[in-house]
């Protein structure tokens, strides 16, 4: 990325805090399956819950709260119902749709195969480009990022992604006008 923030000197994401239903299962997945070291654990006061941090590389962390009284998530509202490329991936306004972890381009195919070998349900490889469908059927000129998607034990949508073309943020990559709230097609309840 080559764009510069003119307001604040930001160094990336310090941590992203998500909510899980079972902290042990979360540790097993993020440390055991994905290999992220558990770097900090906190027992919240008054038996409210726990807050655990995992090193996801580059000095960044992904963290989880476990709350004793947390309501269950609702697929399609608090998180997508399906993996992109396999079904519905819309989520509600204010929700966190997915977390993308940067992986080396030269190891992308290996990592996709490794997730599959570990028993993780993984989407097909998606070669994102600027075509009308936004995804090319194979690697070709114009693909700017490759992705594969999978879910953690609580259904949180995760992505392995690697940049393969020009860095994003250059002026020629910003061509679409932002939509407004008036452009939304909000589903009504029956």
UniProtKB/TrEMBL annotation:
Top-level taxon of the source organism: Bacteria
CDD domains, A to Z: VOC (cd06587)
Coiled-coil regions, chain positions: none
All copies of domain VOC, residue ranges: 12-163
Short name of one Pfam family: Glyoxalase
InterPro entries for the chain: Glyas_Bleomycin-R_OHBP_Dase, Glyas_Fos-R_dOase_dom, GlyoxalaseI/FosfomycinResist, VOC_core
Protein name, per record: VOC family protein
């Amino acid at each position: 990325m080559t764009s510069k923030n003119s307001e604040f000197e930001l160094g990336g994401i310090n941590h992203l805090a998500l909510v899980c239903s079972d902290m042990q299962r979360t540790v097993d997945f993020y440390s055991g399956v994905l290999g992220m070291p558990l770097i900090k654990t906190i027992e919240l006061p008054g038996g409210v819950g726990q807050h655990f941090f995992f090193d996801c590389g580059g000095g960044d962390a992904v963290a989880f709260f476990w709350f004793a009284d947390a309501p269950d998530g609702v697929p399609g509202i608090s998180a997508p119902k399906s993996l992109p490329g396999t079904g519905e991936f819309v989520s509600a306004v204010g929700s966190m749709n997915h977390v993308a972890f940067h992986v080396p381009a030269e190891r992308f195919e290996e990592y996709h195969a490794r997730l599959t070998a570990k028993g993780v349900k993984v989407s097909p490889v998606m070669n994102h480009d600027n075509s009308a469908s936004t995804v090319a059927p194979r690697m070709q000129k114009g693909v700017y990022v490759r992705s594969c998607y999978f879910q953690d034990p609580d259904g949180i949508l995760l992505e392995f992604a690697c940049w393969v073309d020009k860095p994003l943020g250059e002026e020629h990559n910003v061509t679409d006008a932002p939509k407004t709230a008036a452009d939304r097609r909000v589903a009504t309840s029956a």
